[in-house]
Amino acid sequence: MKILAVADVESKYLYDYYVPGKLSGYDLIIACGDLSRNYLEFLVDASNATVLYVRGNHDDSFEEDPPEGCVCIEDRVYVHKGVRIMGLGGCHKYREGRNMFTEKQMEKRVRRMRWKIFKSGGIDIFVTHAPARNLNDFDSLSHRGFECFNEVIRRYRPKFFVHGHIHKNYGHNIPQRTTLGDTEVINAYDYCAFEIADGGKRGKG
């Protein structure tokens, strides 16, 4: 299964310089937040892929007016061709907003997911907007990762952890791909393609 992950900016390569067929090879598109409704709906129209998304800290309007044709995976384990995908959007609470959470609030969301993860037999892809603490994040509250995400990765060992929120122009040496134990970590800023076999076995990147 070929997957396209996107986040934070409308990719010029995919959007401004789109040509018919550019997105036809993807089976699944995962949006990690802070993308416009028009862009997400474009991805639906321009591809034959299922488009999944979690909300970013700038996506408050999506609760009342979600992007058409897309599947919100907030607080869900969504299964696509046997691949189990868990979604938890939002970022650290640095101001008021529907998609901003304290560490304790995000821990509560994680606890509520445990039964769903158990029923699905685990997770293969963990999708968030914010990063995990000390993994592609910063010390400032607005771009700090969540400690509880590290626990999810350690406990359930997903094959991929895919997040947004950390723009590559925020500083030098921000990797797009790295690893934490057995989990490959992908910063989906702009876009990043990867593969996983149907049923959750890792494919080539």
Describe this entry's structure for a reader.
The protein is an alpha/beta fold and 205 residues long. It has a single domain, classed as 4-Layer Sandwich (Purple Acid Phosphatase, chain A, domain 2). The chain is built from 4 helices and 13 strands. A 6-stranded mixed beta sheet has the order 5-6-9-10-12-11. Strands 4-3-2-1-13 form a 5-stranded mixed beta sheet, covered by helices on one side. Strands 7-8 form a two-stranded parallel sheet. The chain is globular and about 45 Å long. The chain starts with a strand and ends in a 10-residue tail after the last strand. The mean pLDDT is 94.
Keywords:
single chain, 205 residues, alpha/beta, Purple Acid Phosphatase, chain A, domain 2, six-stranded mixed β-sheet, five-stranded mixed β-sheet, 4 helices
Q: Quick summary of this structure?
A:
This protein is α/β, with parallel strands linked by helices. It has one domain (2-195): Purple Acid Phosphatase, chain A, domain 2, CATH 3.60.21. 21% of the residues lie in helices and 26% in strands.
Total beta-strand segments: 13
Count, helices? 4
CATH superfamily: Metallo-dependent phosphatases
Structural class: alpha/beta
CATH topology: Purple Acid Phosphatase, chain A, domain 2
**Which strand order spans the largest sheet, edge to edge or round the barrel?**
5-6-9-10-12-11
Give the rounded overall mean pLDDT.
94
Q: Bin the strand percentage.
A: 25-35%
Fraction of helical residues:
10-25%
CATH architecture: 4-Layer Sandwich
Radius of gyration from the alpha-carbon trace, in angstroms: 16 Å
Tally of discrete structural domains: 1
The largest sheet is: 6 strands, mixed
End-to-end separation: 11 Å
The top-level CATH class is Alpha Beta
Globally, the shape reads globular
Topology order in helix (H) and strand (E) letters: EHEHEEEEEEHEHEEEE
Low confidence ranges: none
